[in-house]
Specification:
InterPro entries: Prot-tyrosine_phosphatase-like. The protein is α+β, with helices and mostly antiparallel strands and 44 residues long. Helices cover 23% and strands 9% of the residues. The chain is built from one helix and two strands.
Length: 44
Protein backbone atom coordinates (compact mmCIF):
# COMPACT_ATOMS: atom_id res chain seq x y z
CA UNK A 1 0.00 0.00 0.00
CA UNK A 2 1.22 3.45 -0.79
CA UNK A 3 0.83 4.77 2.76
CA UNK A 4 2.57 1.87 4.51
CA UNK A 5 5.95 2.28 6.14
CA UNK A 6 8.28 -0.70 6.54
CA UNK A 7 10.69 -1.02 9.46
CA UNK A 8 12.97 -3.92 10.33
CA UNK A 9 14.40 -5.26 13.57
CA UNK A 10 16.46 -8.26 14.56
CA UNK A 11 15.36 -9.94 17.79
CA UNK A 12 14.13 -7.09 20.00
CA UNK A 13 13.71 -7.13 23.75
CA UNK A 14 10.43 -5.98 25.29
CA UNK A 15 12.01 -2.54 25.81
CA UNK A 16 13.11 -2.59 22.17
CA UNK A 17 9.57 -3.34 21.00
CA UNK A 18 8.23 -0.46 23.12
CA UNK A 19 10.90 1.84 21.65
CA UNK A 20 9.98 0.87 18.08
CA UNK A 21 6.28 1.43 18.74
CA UNK A 22 7.06 4.82 20.31
CA UNK A 23 9.31 5.74 17.37
CA UNK A 24 6.68 4.97 14.74
CA UNK A 25 3.96 6.75 16.70
CA UNK A 26 1.79 3.74 17.46
CA UNK A 27 0.07 5.75 20.19
CA UNK A 28 -0.25 9.52 20.12
CA UNK A 29 -2.50 11.74 22.19
CA UNK A 30 -4.08 8.67 23.79
CA UNK A 31 -5.17 7.32 20.40
CA UNK A 32 -3.78 3.95 19.30
CA UNK A 33 -2.78 3.33 15.69
CA UNK A 34 -2.91 -0.05 13.97
CA UNK A 35 0.47 -1.76 13.56
CA UNK A 36 1.10 -4.97 11.63
CA UNK A 37 4.08 -6.74 13.24
CA UNK A 38 5.34 -9.84 11.41
CA UNK A 39 7.92 -12.16 12.94
CA UNK A 40 9.80 -14.29 10.40
CA UNK A 41 12.07 -16.00 12.92
CA UNK A 42 11.97 -19.76 12.77
CA UNK A 43 12.60 -21.57 16.03
CA UNK A 44 15.27 -24.30 15.88
Amino acid sequence: AGSSHVHGVAIPTIDGIHNVLDHIGAQKNGEQKQVLWINLREEP
